[in-house]
Input
Amino acid sequence: MLLVIDVGNTNMVLGLYNNNTLYKTWRINTQTPKTSDELGITILSLFKNISITTDVINDVVIASVVPNIMYTLTRGIKKYIGIQPMVISADMDLGIKIIRDDPRECGIDRIVDIVAAKELYGTPAIVIDYGTANTFDVINENNEFITGFITAGVKICADELYSRSAQLPKVELISPKSIVATDTVSSLQVGIVAGRIGETIGIINALKNGLNIPNAKVIATGGLANIIDPNKKIFDIYDPILTLTGIKILYNRNK
Output
């Protein structure tokens, strides 16, 4: 089995692959500081819960946007699983070309999303990942990662409103059923989520028109993507495991 780990700013997602089948996924908090022992024991406990032992783990691969956690994470895996993990980087054979001044400055999560989109769904494509931040990235028909940018995530917008406004409550992030808001909670929900929906539609149209890629597939991933497009009218494809798939593709390409 292959253990794939996607380390994000808020959560760490672990996926266990049995050949090409994703057997199990887990999500743990990234922001709480942990030692290598704590991380190693946590992973062992996840395995134990589904009656998996470390001797069936053939390899481990990590993609991370949190450099500060990498020493303790890799050390914990080495100590408790007995494997030195592969760490995905822009210097690997990616199967795509990154068009920017320094490809190594590009977030590795964005690279693995683009790689997965290209391999699974073809090009050109606009890939949107909804997480702590929202990323909008474009790969053209020549397999070139030509542009991309970052906006504030839905939760960041909600938290910022709450922290800076004395009388505004924290609210559940849900897709609004109507733009008619009759109380403070629904006003916040409509404003926060509808704002991000409008942002998404505007950016997609700007990219398609500005880059002359009217037929580009729009591929979304990330835990909050369903809030943006619950009726499946904005995205062509919603793939909740796009990032894990991209990490596995790059592992297979570079192992």
